[in-house]
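quick one, 178 residues, struct below
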Amino acid sequence: MDASSEFQDTLPVSSDALLAQLKDWGLGYVLHEHVPLRTVEDAKAVEAAMEVPGEAAFRVKNLYLRDKKKRNYLVTLEQDREIDLKALGKQLGVGGLSFGSADRLLQNLGVRPGAVTPLAMINGAEAGVRFFIDAAVKEADKIYMHPLVNDRTVAMDVSDLWVFFERLGVAPEMLELG
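---
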């Protein structure tokens, strides 16, 4: 099964249910539908259609990681940020960071590879996933991310994303990266 909305009903929380929840909570977003995106390069190919002149946009890449003690992490970075897992582990104070498997990703964040997103914390909060986000997000007006599937992108005010986390009881941890 791929990570597109065609299979969203096989997820713990469907993309449609997430979008309805955002709306119920009064959180605004603009929904963009597009071909399935699996990589940052794929995303860059469709971003021009989403650009808003003068907008400070934060476009993301997301890493689902585990440490040697089998703890789970979601790390959201600016899409062009280079990352060294060993250095990141040192900054987080954990050892042996590696990418989590597709099965664990579905179990802990409720998404498939290619659809990892900060919005997956709707599942990750209960699973005890720690969430880290690039501090560069503080400079942005909007954040662009998948709503649990990879053929949709939502543009959301960063302030609304913080309200989303507050509703879930998630305290995002800022990553100060050089």
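The first strand starts at residue 30 and ends at 33.
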